[in-house]
Each structure stands twice: as C-alpha cells, then as structure tokens.
Amino acid sequence: MKVFDLLCPQDHVFEAWFGSEADFRSQMERSMVECPLCGSAQLRKGLSAPRLNLGAKPPEKTAQTAAASVPAVASHTQVDRQKLHAMQAAWLEVSRKIVKTTENVGDQFADEALRMHRGEEPERPIRGQATPTQAMELLEEGVPLLPLALPASSKETLQ
Ligand SMILES: [Zn+2]
Question: Among residues 151, 147, 155, which one has the least CA distance to residue 129?
C-alpha cells in the first residue's frame, strides 16, 4: 500500500492511498482521484516521500490528516469570497420566501407550535420568537423546529 500527499491546483493537500505506484498512475490518468475540497482532478504529487504500509488495513482517519486540511480550508474560504457573497444572496432569497410563506406569531410561537403538534390546531407554517428554553421544550416534545436568524433586510422589505 502506498500513501501519497496530493496537491490540487489550489494547493489543497490531502492523503491518498493506492495499492501501488502503477495503481496511482492509472487512477490519475483516468481522473479517478479528486480533491476532497474543490473536486479538481488535476492533482500532483506532494513533496513528502511515499510511505510503505505493510499492513493490509485501510487507513484510519488520523488527526494529522484533519490538521493538514484545516489551513487549506481557510485559504479556500479567502479565495472564495465571491462564492460567499453569492451564498449570502441566496440565503437572503430563501429568507424572503420564508417571510412570505409563514405567518408571524411573534412570541406566541412556542404555544402555537405546541398546539399544532398536539392536533389542537390545524397545521400551518408559522414563524416567531422562542426563548432557548422554549425551543428545548418544543424539541423534547418532538416538534420540528428550524432555528433561523433572518437578515434584517428581509424583514424590512416584506413586513
Ligand atoms: Zn482542491
């Protein structure tokens, strides 16, 4: 078993395991290996010497691997500022939809949700405020909850 540190064009480093050097080459040629962070198949071998693993056991996900990928994720986030902005725009869009399709019951949320859950009231989509204690009680009763922090702008435009 051979272990290689592979690098993608965005310098994400990750470990990959192959049966042999030939196995590694054929998998690379067929683009069967992808960067777990960005999905790129244009990989190159890192500088570290390949280790020979004599056991046939599959690799354990070690803390070392996780630690190695943390800085990569951080730099990835910086590069993807634009993507982040797109995500925020999408999130705002979703928030507006939620505001449009749910009834605002304000601080009556916990009571209303519980009544609907117990069948004392017909089900309808509601939103409102609940204290952390109320939210815990609802979850314990098995009420499905979606905690949301709606952006202030979605409220301004639609209420
Ligand atoms: Zn990558």
Answer: 147
